[in-house]
Design goal:
mainly alpha, two-stranded antiparallel ribbon, 2 strands, about 55% helix, elongated
Length: about 500
């Protein structure tokens, strides 16, 4: 009897489960129906129910009506338990609800959605498509909001997005262990130490020597402004003039211009005056290296006074109080130049002249002609060599050779030929005139012989004579001698020719 009761109970449970499945399938989606039907079918296959026993499941019909009424109480997919429902029915309803939620969440992750007709709609992107994974920016760990890392400027060692500008003013952190309240309002500046005598000479001397090469006074002013000269500011003109005394005339002209440019920017009139006072005191030492230092210093003083960087009363202040003969000679030279500028109109601004590269070509040609004319009168080779060096135009010495040969052709005298040949020989031996400049001078004469012969009819014969003697003296080589042009000459009638004109072929 006990075994029969247990079997009847099992059959009743199976029947209730089958009936519940049919009711749920009416109100669920296709995917849920399929899943539940598959599970139930598997369970029924494992526990078969006889057909004859199904009639005994509900003998009185009370349970059938009760279960059906409870199922009809479903509103929008939510199960509402009746107050009189059994615990077993509540468990079945909860199980179905959990299964519905689980399947709906799984299907939404794969891209499925429920349409209005309760049919599953598949999205266009398959669940295994790499495109779907790339478009999904959400973290796989389930963290974050799906935003790009570091705002799109990610990467190791990257500080921010390209073009991002950080503020230069850094806020002071009061909690910093190195924070000091006294240093919060401090102003930091670069401190340049003042120069002493040894450091001053090592620093300023290269600046002045480079200025002799480029001649840019503005660059010197900028370099000196970066230095902390302090009490050594008055020694700048003194150092520049001392270096210029041992340099060329063009360097002395640049030094005078430099003093005029620096006064008012880096130097004051008091600094320039103090420098010349020191130079007058040190003249005995300067004469040892530069014998003409007193005259040159006098010219520097006159030029500074003409440029209005030195007071006119500077020379008058030394009257009757000078014991050094060198200082007296320098002051006398300066006074004479200033007096000549007032009376005769002497231009002190061109006292030193200008460098060869800065002179116009016409002026250089005039100075070369004056030099050659003075040499023809005096015959002093040493003085002519010194004057040519002072012109400081080694690149223009071919003009000197050209003008010298033209003078020989125009003079038509043997003395001029010999004295010019002697000068060229001395200048080539002392390398004042280089081989290249000498060759260029002769070649220019060769090219211009057609025009020269118009004014000097016998120019070709005189040129041949001069070239031959220059070759014999070792001034030119055989190759340059062979380049000398010679004009074909006509032979006129002579004795025994019968008065006929002979032509030379």
């Amino acid at each position: 009897a006990g075994q029969r009761t247990q079997n009847q109970h099992q059959r009743r449970v199976r029947s209730n489960l089958s009936f519940a499945i049919k009711q749920v399938q009416k109100h669920t989606s296709y995917a849920v129906k399929l899943t539940m039907a598959t599970d139930c079918e598997a369970w029924l296959n494992a526990n078969p129910v006889e057909a004859g026993n199904l009639s005994d499941s509900f003998p009185s019909g009370d349970e059938d009506s009760t279960f059906t009424g409870n199922v009809n109480n479903e509103i929008n997919g939510n199960w509402i338990l009746a107050p009189t429902g059994s615990i077993h029915e509540a468990r079945l309803k909860a199980k179905v609800k959990r299964r519905l939620r689980k399947n709906s969440s799984r299907d939404s992750g794969r891209g499925d959605s429920l349409s209005d007709n309760s049919d599953a709609v598949r999205s266009t992107v398959p669940p295994t498509s790499p495109k779907g994974k790339l478009l999904n920016r959400r973290s796989r760990m389930g963290k974050g909001r799906g935003l790009p890392k570091k705002g799109g400027a990610g990467g190791k060692g990257v500080w921010g997005t390209p073009g991002e500008v950080y503020d230069e003013d850094v806020k002071v952190d009061v909690k910093d262990p190195n924070y000091d309240a006294e240093q919060e309002n401090c102003v930091y500046e670069t401190v340049v130490l003042p120069l002493d005598e040894e450091t001053f000479e090592k620093t300023v001397t290269p600046i002045v020597q480079e200025y002799f090469e480029h001649g840019d006074a503005n660059e010197v002013a900028e370099l000196l402004a970066e230095l902390n000269l302090s009490g050594m500011r008055g020694d700048v003109p003194m150092l520049a003039v001392s270096l210029a005394l041992e340099a060329k005339a063009s360097h002395r002209e640049l030094t005078s211009r430099l003093l005029s440019e620096l006064c008012g920017r880096v130097l004051t009139a008091g600094d320039v005056e103090a420098s010349f006072h020191k130079l007058l005191k040190e003249l005995p030492d300067l004469v040892l290296d530069t014998p003409a230092a007193p005259q040159m210093l006098g010219q520097f003083i006159a030029r500074a006074a003409a440029d209005n960087i030195l007071s006119k009363s500077f020379i008058d202040g030394y009257k009757g109080r000078v014991d050094c003969e060198y200082a007296r000679a320098a002051l006398d030279r300066a006074a004479v130049l200033l007096r000549m500028s007032r009376w005769t109109g002497l231009r002190i601004d061109s006292l030193w002249g200008s460098g060869g590269g800065q002179r116009p070509v016409n002026q250089l040609i005039k100075e070369v002609n004056l030099l050659l004319k003075e040499y023809l009168l005096s015959g002093d080779t040493v003085e002519a060599e010194r004057c040519l060096r002072e012109l400081e135009v080694p690149h223009f010495h071919h003009e000197f050779v050209y003008e010298a040969i033209i003078m020989v052709l125009e003079s038509k005298g043997d003395r001029t030929l010999q004295i010019i040949l002697q000068l060229l020989k001395c200048l080539c031996a002392s390398t004042v005139i280089t081989v290249d400049q000498l060759r260029r001078g002769f070649e220019r004469v060769y090219l211009d012989m057609a025009d020269i012969s118009i004014d000097v009819p016998c120019a070709y014969s005189l040129l041949e004579q001069f070239v031959e003697q220059s070759f014999n003296a070792g001034v030119i080589d055989k190759k340059l001698r062979d380049l000398c042009p010679c004009r074909g000459r006509k032979r006129f009638m002579s004795e025994g020719d019968g008065g006929r004109l002979k032509l030379s072929f």
